[in-house]
Amino acid sequence: MRIGATLLTLSLAPLLACVLVFAVWLPQDMNRYEEYGAAEPCGAGAPAREWEDCLRTVSFTVDSTRNTRSRSGGYRAALSGAPLWNRTVEFGGPDPLLERLRPGDRVTGTVWRGDITALSREGVRQSTSEEPRDEPQMTAAIGTFAGLLAALGFWLGAMRLTRPRDREIFTWAGYGKPLLIALLVACCGVGLPFVWLGLPWWLVPAVVVPLMVYTAWQVHRYRQPRAARQPVPVPE
Predict the structure, then answer these.
(1) Residue 213 CB neighbours (<10 A)
(2) pTM of the model
(3) Cα 125–136–178 angle (5° rounding)?
(4) Residues 6+ apart with CB under 8 A from 131
(5) Burial class, 234, CB count within 10 angstroms (exposed 0-12 / middle 13-18 / buried 19+)
(6) What's the burial of 136, exposed, middle or buried (CB within 10 Å: 0-12/13-18/19+)?
(7) Residue 91 CB: number of other CB atoms within 10 A?
(8) 3-state per-residue secondary structure call for the chain
């Protein structure tokens, strides 16, 4: 009883995360990407501000760089020389520009709403981690993972409460672990290819949810005691 109630309570956390992803995070990211794509260059005579909707090009001096990923951080460059936006920016990888930069190099940064979204030098441009991206598929995969994780916890908790005699069947080792692994594989295996292919984000839950329902059903059939699946002999 205690384990079942605990599972039901804990399932509320990923359920809340799922709601926040689809109701807040996903719409905000999509709107931000659209607004960034529609932004115009700042006027030549317009005074620079820390936060502005237009795209501003700013010259920076590279103070230091990190071209390897480690426990202390990833790929980054420390910039200075601008009146409002001196900071350390991060990147997803070392190429095509970061690996070429050395302390003292001058680079041109693109600034939008207070964030340095890209750096360029001698015709080579690299986006920073702050640049809005059209990748709602992975955000949808995260939301789908949270929602199905909540459903898994709720289902296991409900089974342990309503079927106490079968508590030896509905365990973490029997259901939770294999279904969690399958859920991770499904969300990553669908989300990443859909990003590369540019498919609509709503196809991610549309594919993952039926796939996980089928997987859960197959695991349930496999985990049932053999005696329960054998036909009961009819007395003569």
Answers:
(1) 12
(2) 0.82
(3) 120
(4) 36, 115, 117, 118
(5) exposed
(6) buried
(7) 24
(8) CHHHHHHHHHCHHHHHHHHHHHHHHHHHHHHHHHHHHHCCECCCCCCCCCCCCCEEEEEEEEEEEECCCECCECEEEEEECCCCCCEEEEECCCCCCHHHCCCCCEEEEEEECCEEEEEEECCEEEECCCCCCCCHHHHHHHHHHHHHHHHHHHHHHHHHHHCHHHCCCCCHHHHHHHHHHHHHHHHHHHHHHHHHHCCCCCHHHHHHHHHHHHHHHHHHHHHCCHHHHCCCCCCC
Predicted confidence pLDDT, tens digits, the chain (236 residues)? 677 788 888 999 999 999 999 999 999 999 999 999 999 999 888 889 999 999 999 999 999 999 887 666 689 999 999 989 999 999 999 999 999 999 999 999 999 999 999 999 999 999 999 999 999 999 999 999 999 999 998 988 887 777 656 555 666 667 788 899 999 999 999 999 999 999 999 999 999 999 999 998 888 777 665 435 545 444 44
Residue position matching structure tokens 């292919």: 197
In whole angstroms, give the CA distance from residue 92 to residue 95: 9
